[in-house]
Structures are given as C-alpha cells and as structure tokens.
Request: fold
Amino acid sequence: MSKSARTISKAAEEPDFDAIEDAVRATEQGRWFLQEFARRNRTADTDRLLAAIEQLYERASRQHADADTDHIHRELAGTYAVLQDTRSRMAELHGGVETVDPVAAAMRAATDIAVTAERMREIAESFRKNGMNEDLCEEMDQHIAGILAAASRQEMSGRCVALLSLGLGEFEARLSALLDLWVEKKTMEIRAA
Reply:
C-alpha cells in the first residue's frame, strides 16, 4: 500500500473525511484536484510497481545465468577430471611414471622393432650364404617383411598419438585456464557481496 493510500485510509477513519471530500467536490477546481491527485498517485504506484518488476526480472536473469555458468563449470571440471584420470592411467601402464612420453615410447618401440627385424634379415642372409635351407630362409624373409610392415604401422600410429597428445595437452591447458577464470570470477563475486 502506498504512503498516500495509507494517508487516505487513515483519513477515512476520521469522521470529517466525507464532509471534506464533499466540500472539495462541490467546486470545479476541487473535482479537478481530486482527479489529478488520483492520477498522480496511480502513476507513482505504477512506476514503483514497474521498477519492482524490473528488479525481479534482473535478479531472476542473473540467477538463471549463474545456474547456467555453474552447470558449464561442473561439465568443464568433469572433463578436466577425465583428462587427469587418463594421464594417471597412462602412467600406470608405464610403471607409475607420469613423465613417460607415450609418443616417444611408441616411436622408440617402432624403431626397436625395425632394428630387430633388420638384424633378423642379416641373419637370414647369413644363413643363405652358409647353405641353410632356402625354404626356411624364405619363410624368415616373409616374417621379417611382416614385422617391418607392423613397425611402419606402429610408427604411423606413434605420429597420430603425437598429434593427439599435443591436441589433448593444449585442450587440457585451455580447460585449466577456463576453470581458473571461473574460480577467480566467483571469488570476486563473493568478495563483492
């Protein structure tokens, strides 16, 4: 209830109110005054009501935006946790050493396989020169060719892993930066409150 309405309500309880109102309404100027007073009073009430509605809308919008931001933060934090878990699991595969570079390990394995296969090819060639069974030497050459093809695929896989590892590392760094920004923003909001 507005201040003027409370005043009128309070005045209505007084016995002379009706007599005063009748006296004011008796003249053209008095009727104009009452109409203008009522119009201004309604306008003031309407303005206060619109301001209150606008404040409620802004508050609801901020709360909705905060809820969306909180949801996004939870999803980003969950994604970051998955990346951290993946790093830990990869470390477990390498004997618990987190600093092992999986790309370097894959490339080293491909190189080791290729070197071993080449050594086997030299041995097969030596067998041929010493008159060993040609069929056995041919079979060894076929297996060596298969091993070298597998080493080549391992090397290509290592390159793909390198690209993925670089991309995931960059993704992890950006995700970490986003999470840090969110924490900083929330800290500033809490301090401002």
Notes: The chain has five helices and no strands.
